[in-house]
């Protein structure tokens, strides 16, 4: 099967599998940049690229499950990328989807907190990661998890030490940090993607958590 996807010579090999298994986002992103340059030089067709990404959507989702994280809500993330891939017909846009896909799955692989003795916390954190690009309220979480607002709030604060909404802001800012150094999205685009009310609120929250503005963080990074 792998031989059918010539454009993925960088990924269908042991090096890529090793990077995913070891959760090495930085090297995998760098490998992806190299891959994209070659795809442009070789002028690969969008159809071939779509096929590549459909395969990698499956493989990355499987890796999340293999690492023991919750399967709950995984179908939402998988279906989101499946739909985007099928509806996109230009190579640059497909390449952007690929970077977003890597970042989204790696967020879960790297940051998902597994508290085996507290299933409620597992469900809340899983919910937050799978809805990282959405506006979420305590009522949303409680309704979807079929629990009361008071119960999830008290349980989370007791076990994690901060409120659910504060934790969710940190999750969003962690994603923003990655987007700032792995994509060319503007600060406004990132703030909109992560559902902050406006760019000013996003920048203020970012600086409060990271200690510098989004642009300062981007300029100080050497990931690229």
UniProtKB/TrEMBL annotation:
<dbReference type="GO" id="GO:0043565">
    <property type="term" value="F:sequence-specific DNA binding"/>
</dbReference>
<dbReference type="InterPro" id="IPR009057">
    <property type="entry name" value="Homeodomain-like_sf"/>
</dbReference>
<dbReference type="InterPro" id="IPR018060">
    <property type="entry name" value="HTH_AraC"/>
</dbReference>
<keyword id="KW-0805">Transcription regulation</keyword>
<dbReference type="GO" id="GO:0003700">
    <property type="term" value="F:DNA-binding transcription factor activity"/>
</dbReference>
<protein>
    <submittedName>
        <fullName>Helix-turn-helix transcriptional regulator</fullName>
    </submittedName>
</protein>
<keyword id="KW-0804">Transcription</keyword>
<dbReference type="Pfam" id="PF12833">
    <property type="entry name" value="HTH_18"/>
</dbReference>
<feature type="domain" description="HTH araC/xylS-type">
    <location>
        <begin position="122"/>
        <end position="220"/>
    </location>
</feature>
<keyword id="KW-0238">DNA-binding</keyword>
């Amino acid at each position: 099967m792998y031989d059918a996807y010539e454009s993925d010579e960088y990924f269908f090999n042991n090096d890529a599998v090793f990077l995913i298994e070891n959760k090495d986002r930085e090297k995998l992103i760098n490998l992806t940049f190299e891959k994209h340059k070659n795809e442009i030089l070789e002028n690969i067709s969008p159809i071939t690229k779509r096929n590549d990404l459909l395969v990698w959507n499956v493989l990355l989702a499987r890796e999340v499950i293999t690492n023991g994280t919750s399967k709950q809500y995984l179908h939402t993330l998988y279906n989101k990328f499946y739909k985007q891939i099928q509806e996109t017909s230009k190579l640059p846009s497909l390449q952007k989807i690929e970077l977003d896909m890597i970042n989204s799955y790696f967020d879960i692989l790297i940051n998902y907190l597994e508290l085996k003795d507290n299933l409620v916390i597992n469900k809340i954190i899983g919910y937050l990661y799978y809805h990282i690009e959405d506006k979420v309220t305590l009522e949303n979480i409680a309704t979807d998890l079929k629990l009361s607002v008071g119960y999830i709030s008290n349980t989370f604060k007791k076990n994690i030490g901060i409120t659910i909404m504060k934790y969710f802001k940190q999750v969003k800012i962690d994603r923003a940090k990655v987007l700032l150094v792995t994509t060319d999205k503007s600060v406004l685009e990132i703030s909109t993607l992560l559902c902050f009310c406006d760019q000013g609120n996003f920048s203020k929250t970012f600086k409060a958590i990271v200690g510098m503005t989004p642009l300062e963080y981007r300029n100080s990074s050497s990931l690229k």
